[in-house]
Design a protein that fits this description.
alpha+beta; Nucleoside Triphosphate Pyrophosphohydrolase; 2 domains; 7-stranded mixed sheet; 18% helix; binds zinc ion
Length: 169
Amino acid sequence: MTRWIYCPQCKLELDQSGKYPKCPSGHFIKYPNPVASAFVFISFHSKYLFLRRNYEPKFGSWNVPGGFVEYGESAEQALAREVKEETQLTIDISKLKYLGSFYQEYGDKNGTKNLGIAFCLELETRPEIVLNQEHSEYIWRTLEESPEIESTDISNALEFLKKINDINN
Ligand SMILES: [Zn+2]
């Protein structure tokens, strides 16, 4: 986690003796809040959609559609926007099923950790996927044949999905 040294309002040095760095004049406390993202396991006939990243970080690794939640958006709205950008699919957010929330364990270069909000979406018709420049490739795979995923929020969600799927079968 990036260390906060000064109060952004009065520029006094922050008191580092407590649990969170805080301004001695009471203007500011640096809480280590996570950044929210949303992602979705889209399936059609028990095959799930995976996308291959075309950018750093994790260039060439597999993930699923999703991205950061922007201010004013619900996780579902963020997902609809990201899925549209990344695949050209228009999703019905009322059909999203909440799966759970999962941490990206390693954090970014500033140490900020990402809390990924995971959903599932089962499609009834075969969708046509049109990738944008963020991804180089897509595949449809069963859970058993799913590719390895580096992002721990998505990989932990995938493990959870496999687990509950086994229980249901
Ligand atoms: Zn201050």
